[in-house]
Amino acid sequence: MYKSPRGTSDILPDDQIYWRILNKNIEKISSEFGYGRIDTPIIEDAKLFVRGIGKLTDIVEKETYTFKDRGDNLLTLRPEGTAPICRAYLQHGMQNSTQPIRLFYMLPNFRYERPQSGRYRQHHQFGAENIGESDPNIDCEIIEYAWRFLKNVGLSKLNLEINSIGDKQCRPKYITTLKEYYNSYTNDLCEDCIRRLENNTLRLLDCKKTECKKIISKAPNNLDYLCDECKQHWELLLLYLSDIKLPYIINRRLVRGFDYYTRTVFEITPKTIGSTTAIAGGGRYDGLIEELGGPETPGIGFGIGMERVILELKNQSIPIPKNNNNKILIANLGLKSKHTAISIASFLRKNGITTILGPSSKNLRRQLKYASSIGSTHVIIIGDDEIQKNKLIIKNLSSGTQDSIPNKPNDLVKMLSNN
Asked: Quick one: pLDDT at residue 57?
């Protein structure tokens, strides 16, 4: 029997309510913050991610789906949203518009990584990018945007962790100091950290292996190495977050997995016991547009994993509003009643009422049982007697009451719309 590929999942009808709620809140919060939607292709030039994310990052080295098409072009399934947005920013001349540019997206991404709960090889991400403004008030705006979305969908047990990783002026000095510190522990590092020591030094601070965590705890404090400009940016951000009373935790070990990040980085994680996975994360990428061939342009953004949000909604037992609209099943008994049932079903649907025709191969008892199984609110029963008398029997499954009413479609619509 065929199955979905490992690391992918089907979104079944019972879970669609979560996706509808998330999409509705994405549109609402993005409108409130003044961000416009953008959709980029699922496939991009593979070099975009090598230049944008970094050749020696885990994603580019081990996790991208990269292939040649029939025209011998090397393409990559989109692993993240920021680099394609920056490509679109340059390609469509947005740098010539009034800055900053505010964009949001809700798209599937693809990474060949070990599947885990809420973490799939095909996953969906809601993200936002603010391009063209370096003021730390924009950092505050982006963080609040992500935080407010998660709060609006009902999550409450959350931690916001923030850090500054400096910029190209001050970070090299910190990286040199970090390497010197780690050189004393080369025999104690995991395989990934041995590789990162030379190629992606900041990621040493992000290792989750037990043997490496002890080394991380005594590593030099990156905040002590910030230049004056980065330090001022950092201190202003903390003031702005305090202005809007947004609680935060300074985590000097927090880094992000892409080479393009500068200064502000942040993550939002659930407080749920045993959960260490971030459901939102982002930061500033002031050199990315330049790296892609554009002018020197600041930028900052975030990404939120939709599957992780849904998992956390379930973990926190957040009640999901049910659809209160009526759902009608028309139980028909016999050939004549089936013609009438088809006509009534069509009329009700045209008037915006969810209507399902009962399976005529089943008797009345089984049609009623079927109605309950699919969550019907009412059952309209049509048999030979009802046809002869031009009446309908309507049964309210919530109250259990049953009435015989004239077969007048307009009156039926009014009654069901008001119930």
From this structure: 59
Predicted confidence at residue 81, as pLDDT, reads: 94
Contact 286, 298 (CB under 8 A): yes
Q: Which residues have CB under 8 Å from 345's CB, separation 6+?
A: 330, 355, 356, 357
Per-residue model confidence (pLDDT) at position 334 = 77
Structure-token match 């892409």, residue found: 258
Can you tell me the distance from the alpha carbon of 292 to that of 219, in angstroms, rounded to the nearest whole number?
Answer: 33
Comparing C-alpha atoms, which of 257, 304, 265, 268 is closest to residue 286? 265
Q: Report the distance separating Cα 106 and Cα 224, nearest Å.
A: 37
- Helices marked H in 205-294 — which ranges? 210-216, 228-243, 288-291
Which residues are paired to 405 by β-bridges? 392
pLDDT in the model for residue 53:
67
Q: Which long-range contacts (CB under 8 A, 24 or more apart) does 15-20 make?
A: 15/310, 17/320, 17/322, 17/323, 18/310, 18/313, 18/320, 19/306, 19/310
Nearest CA to 353 among 399, 413, 401? Answer: 413
**Nearest alpha carbon to residue 155 among 347, 369, 314, 362:** 314
Structure tokens given for 128:
């936002």
Name the one residue in this structure whose structure tokens are 């580019």: 60
The pLDDT, as a whole number, for residue 106 is 96
- Architecture in CATH of 327-418: 3-Layer(aba) Sandwich (3.40)
- Domain map (residue ranges) of the chain: 13-170+226-315, 327-418
Dihedral class, residue 329 (left if φ above 0, else alpha if ψ from -120 to 50, else beta): beta
Cα–Cα distances in Å, from 206 out to 64, 69, 263? 20, 35, 16
Domain 13-170+226-315: assigned CATH number: 3.30.930.10
355-360-364-370 Cα dihedral, nearest 10 degrees: -50
Q: What are phi and psi of 408, to 5 degrees?
A: -120, 100
Mean pLDDT for each 10-residue chunk of the chain (419 residues)?
Answer: 92 91 96 97 92 63 88 94 96 96 96 84 96 97 98 93 93 90 87 83 84 88 94 97 96 79 93 73 93 94 95 88 81 85 93 90 88 91 89 91 90 82
Q: What are phi and psi of 125, to 5 degrees?
A: -130, 130
Task: Please check whether the two domains, 13-170+226-315 and 327-418, share a CATH topology.
Answer: no
